[in-house]
Batch of 2 targets.
Target 1
Amino acid sequence: MAERERSHTRPRGAVFVPRAQVMSADDVRRAITRMAHEIAERNRGLHHVVLIGLQTGGVAIADRLAATLAEAEGASLPVGTLDVAFYRDDIGLRPVLPEAVTDISFDLTGATVVLVDDVLFTGRTIRAALNALGEYGRAQVVELAVMVDRGHRELPIRPDYVGKNLPTSRDEMVDVSEDGVSLGELVSR
Amino acid sequence: MSPFPAHLLSMDDLDAEDIAEVLRVADSFVEVGRRANPKVPTLRGRTVATLFFEDSTRTRMSFETAAKRMSADVLSFAAGSSSVKKGESLRDTIETIEAIGIDSVIIRHGSSGVPAQVAGWVDHCAVINAGDGWHQHPTQALLDLYTVRQAFGGGDAGLARFEGLQVVIVGDIRHSRVARSQITAYAALGAEVTLVAPATLLPPSLEGWPVATVTHDLDEVLPKADVVSLLRVQAERGSGEFVPTLREYTAGYGLTVRRAAALHPDAVILHPGPIVRGVEIASEVAELPAALITEQVSNGVAIRMAVLFLLLGQVPVGGAHRV
């Protein structure tokens, strides 16, 4: 949920205006293929590995990673989705609303959880996600896969799998979609 | 889109978009309620007080459970054991509560309009109406909407089913704050509301009420109803005096086994509780799968979590409310 317009978050109206495309759709596809192979390499055999996509931007990427792993490794990994709104530390500082209902229909106890998000920025979403995950069982290991690491971390959090390291200024916005990755600004209408 | 209101006093405060938002946020809290540990840290550091000047079990427990599941601190105020008994005025009680630093007061009062009056006195405290006189009980209407939407598949598709939905509200409309909230709520989503009651249990005037039909003949309207919402005969508000006998009420307006058989197979039966078996609903009918009375109670917690979250989670702790 890191970067795109938060459709359910008031006030509405701010829109993303792209300035430069930094990854094409093909670049994103290749990055997903590479990250999937890295996940398989690090977690030999993919036993007990589950993918959890963060709402909303991480969900599609988690699905694509799972599809790639099914094709390349013949592994059918459980895929869940997680909304971290109720665990955020900025409730009351800005409008925070859940984007979608969390769907984790399996016990995480003993699992290797790969959290998947589109953009890693301050790290606060991941901090909230780590707290939320605990409600679904005690994972053996939690890893983090992101399509874009744009820097500006405010917490000691580091990704294990990265599509692209992208230097940004704080007020820029990164948009990840199936068409690619763009850098731009959020403009109020 | 307008911001969510600072207080929830009446269903009139919410437009269709606000209602949709409450129901959508409640979906996430229903998921929380299904977990082994149904508690989230969302409202840590917030304090909520329940001020009940009237008896209540389910509404009070539901609100307190909702607040506790969001990690808020809950103070429970019963008028019978408070300074009100020593002669303190409501206004002074509220000023005391605000001075203590309470973030939200949930009020039930026998007089219509008390929550609205309290909302005018407070500066940074969200007021929630948990039932005032004959006037409003908005969270009951919201949990009814949630339960109906759930029965019709949930989500946006379930919400779309309200357009043109045939809703029949049966019973003591005159004394019912639940009915007043329900009528506004169903109408806001495009449903067609039919009221069924003896003339004595209808309000003196229905002018301005978004009601399609008023009838005294329950048997005529039941076959085309999608939702049958029953109201309790409220002895404490004197509704027993408006009908000759309870048996006669049941004969004309009770959802008996025979009447329930006339319902459409997909129709659902709602009741805000507490139910009086054998009067407004037959015991066997209350046990039918179409009767969603238990679901209403479970959904009530998630709806109240959503309302508390939308009122308190969007503003700074102790901060100024949007007006």
Target 2
Amino acid sequence: MTTEPTLPLPLKGHDFDAFLGRIEAERHYAGQIVNVTRLPERPARHADPREPLSVPLRSALSARGIDRLYAHQAEAINLAREGEHVVVVTGTASGKTLAYNLPVVERLMAEPDSTALYLFPTKALAQDQLKGLTRFLETASAALPPEDDLITSIRPGVYDGDTSQSARRKIRDTSRLVLSNPDMLHRALLPYHGRWARFLSQLRYVIIDEIHSYRGIFGSNVANVIRRLRRVAAHHGADPQFLSSSATIRNPVELAEALTGVGTRAVTDDGSPRGPRWFVTWNPPHLDAARVERRSGNVEAMEILLRLVREGVATIVFCKARVVAELIYKYAHDELRRKDGALAGRLTPYRSGYLPGERRAIEKRLFDGELLGVVSTNALELGIDIGSLDASIVVGFPGTFASVWQQSGRAGRGHDGSLTIFVAYDDPIDQYLARHPDYFLGQAPEAAAIDPGNPYILAGHLACAAFELPLGPEDEEIFGCMMGGVREALTAEDRLTHLGGLHYWGSTDFPAQRVNLRTISDDTYSIVDATNGDKVIGMVDAISAPELVYPEAIYLHEGETWFVKKLDMDQKVAYVEPVSVDYYTQPVLDTSLRVTERRIERWSGAERLTLNRATVTWATTMFKKIQFGSTDSIGYKNLALPPQHLDTVALGWSPSEEVRNAVRADGRKPAEGLSGIRNLMITVLPLYSMCDRSDIGGVIDSSNFGHPTLFLYDRFAGGVGFTERGYTIWEEMVLEALRLLEDCPCQDGCPSCVGLPILRPAQHQDPDVMNGFPIPDKGAARVMLRGLITP
Amino acid sequence: MSTNLNERLGRLARGPRTPAPPPEVGTIRNSRRRKAPPGLETVLPGEEIRTARGVCWLHERPLERWPGIEDGLAGRLAQVLASPAPDDLERDCGWAGWRSRGVDSGLFLDLETTGLAATPVFLCGLLSCSGGEMTFRLLLARDYSEEAALLEAISGEITRRPVVVSFNGKSYDIPFLKERTGRLRTASCRPDAHFDLLHPARRRWSDRLPDCRLKTLEWAILGRRRGGDIDGAEIPAIYHRFVRDRDPRPLLRVMAHNLHDLYTLAELTVRTAQTRVAPLGTPGEKPNI
């Protein structure tokens, strides 16, 4: 990240006021622009550290045109010098990097053997930072005698999967500043920590950049890797300070402390200047005056994309699902091919599931400015340097405000003005955001939930930790109260051997190989072209494969349609062949939930709230054929795929008889009220839990407890803390749900409030076609919710 | 993860987030009574040796007493070391270091580890001469907790005999020891000189052999074949099992394997010093294939 100069720069010829004006003046314009917020430039605020920086550091700053530090940078330096663990939480391109580089370099200069470790969520970020750091050290060295050259004395180096063997040895033996990622730390550094004795014994600082990306399962894993690092560093005699940085997040201190396990101070007073930004909310019009349904969000987004691309504005579209990225790309590409052939080749889709080579090629074309438009999933939300784009289109609320701001920040990184257009789907949260632009722009990004004590996650890391050094009783302070039980489970299964009060790794396995930080299972299905020697064309994770490549599905890949001939679940292969059709397919899933154990329960007013261990069973039972463009359903077919199981944590809420009677007295059905509340809660909980709606499932069921109960569950084995957080803040969620319901201007319930129409959001679902379900009775939900909060 | 482990973890995930009760002491996992295994003493007779980091086991035997070992190895080694050697050995600082310190300063070394990298070292075989006799010494960590003592003991041996002779030790054994001593923070195992036979052997014979592994050389150059030798890949599992069930009998085969490797290494050292590197295009020593 570079520091912005204090003076605003002119827009790169993109006058977005004029652009929006042209749209509004058009004949077919139907009032989609429901809000334009122009965020003005913000001037810089400066401060000096309590003790001045040394001459070489100051001259390195001057060489970059920096005469004074921003307020937040000075504060971070003060705290770091005092020995505090710090997290810096300021905007995109606010100079967070400098806030940790300065104290680190200062310390490395003062103590000739000391070392620092930088962790980035992606390899690309580490490479970026190495370039910046090297330049910084070179300019700082200019003020020093040649024998004190900082590059020679610090030898910064990137240690990741791409580092050659010889470079690895050199970095291990001589580097004092290593840039890496949590995966590498987990798999290549900690297991071989004996080789890193020099580096670890002098470790002063650990930098964790972009901590907001370490949430959910990934975050819980990384938290355990950091604990292992602290433990191994302590063994070698070091107790490093943690300096973290985060983009938008509600609970930076909580997350930093959960990740590192140490008390942390936050720096939040952003003193950096900012260029002008337009933030537009775009609500697709009603299909016609007589109907409540709105036009397809995908098609509207595609039209905005075409308009921007035709005006030469480099644009990125962020989609919620892979199928959406494919659809919008296909629509846009088809349109350009018909009318604007030259531009068709400057558009590309991007998502996970493409082969790595394909993805690298797209990234390079983006970076080189060859492409004018990219239609992506959140795979491009952060990390990979794709150069600067002028506009971003966010299609549908991505589940977190943090994601909205990250996606928005992808446009106009650097000094220029930028445009973000949020396109609302016809669904509750999107419509709520479209109706409440002030609420939208005023939203603090959500809190991040991680659960390092998750037994499934902890088991993998305790095995790794025991491989690194035998586990002792004092390690419970690092790994928490779940350690004892998990350790005994590993011992009982002969993974660990108990000898003289310590637990040793007693197996020929290399445990780090069995733990993938990024998902709980790294099992994948290959998607192969059966007409071309079974050439692999794409991949999909094993969990969601039966929702994407079920037999007779249409699989979309770079806008092309492929027909799934056969799904081999033993070999984990889907055989596809190219086909020309005018439809795509959407899975229909059947889900049931079985409570296996009640963990804790409490009363919320007169209602019983339980936190349970539950098994969720689901299968793709049929699929629908959806016509491209019109999204009309043109048929369906039943499937007989074996069900899958998920053992997880479920929050159960049972409305009291009184509340149900109140609904009856109003002439309404309690079951309708409960359905409405479920839909509202699936919408509301992600706002608090830093997860996507698709991370949470919800069912209503009477068979488990003998009376109607709403269950919300984590869609990850073992649970990841999402519904556990809901259990704690249930009353707040009830208020939020009622606010959402009462703010909605509709009469009897609509897709925008109680009518979230999906029972269990599928990963490969197109939000455009999810509005065909009956809408529960809004009045019943209102009576029920009001009954909960009025004494 | 195995089903059983997942079941146990599932039970934990269901339970409250509180510390587990301490493990029961003295539970017998296998209810069937088994005959106690013989003591280590009966299989690898020796003694406990004390180091700065605890104790480990030392088993020692004169090399010549083992079946299939030819007499006079110490003399042959002394002779080749004292005589002019082929050019490549004369240029090898490991060889020169050994020659200058005398044949008794040489320590033939071969580790047995529980994995390819960064896993515990549990056994170190050492072969050395003293007064014209060859002695095989085997250092053993009887469980994982004795590894630090084992490393200290190896360090002590290297201090006494500072010239390590190995087969691929520059790439494997010594870096392996470096990682383990760095990890366990024990005394370093750095020899003053190191003669690694792998490269001289490759120069002489690799173009005529399917590969240049020690076993291949033993068979092709020395004309010996081992009967009933253990597969190296089985060794880690044998050790883990020994730590759990304390039955030392399978370790005998590990010891024999290690001893044979060292003996072959020493004999090959003699043969290497007696063999010039053939210039390109001329037939060298005809291997015994």
